[in-house]
Amino acid sequence: MLFTFLCTVRIDIIDGSNSPKAKFKQIDGLELVLVLVLVIVLVLVLVLVLILVLILVLVLVIVLVLVLVLVLVLALVLVIVLVLAVVLVLVLILVLILVLVILLVLVLVLVLVLVLVLLLVLLLAGGCWPPQSPQSLYGIGFRKILYEIVSHVRKKLKYKLGENIYHIFRMIQLRGVTSKYGQIKVGVVLVNNLMAMER
Q: Membrane-spanning residues where (predicted)?
């Protein structure tokens, strides 16, 4: 009904564009309806375009935020990897130091075992005096073995005890004791004295 009314009504407006005298111009209601519909359509199109632009802006903002979060995560992962690398290097250094300490301890234990073996030999040499015969525990063969052990200690390990025992045999030779039995007897006495000093 309203549409029918607008289509039949005529609107008179003043048109003074070309003439100094005012005159009336009539506009049909149908033309007015078409103009209103066109205006409404344009407004709706503009609103839709504005909504699309806002949606596009929101999408761009979300993408930018996601990119920033991804960059932060990558930076955090890189920092964690660097920290793990530093920790791994420190652990390797500590393991290397531990291995060196273990090797040093093993060497010290080996040296201690050698010294204890040498002391045991000396204890065996000084615990059964006097010998029953020159060929007993203090015989020529045992003295040669003991001398070889002392010489090896003196040449390879350079220990004080080995040097002292080496000097014992030198003192025996310098005293001019020529017999094997006499050399053994003097050597055992000096070894016992040396062991007493070591204690």
A: 32-55, 61-94, 101-125
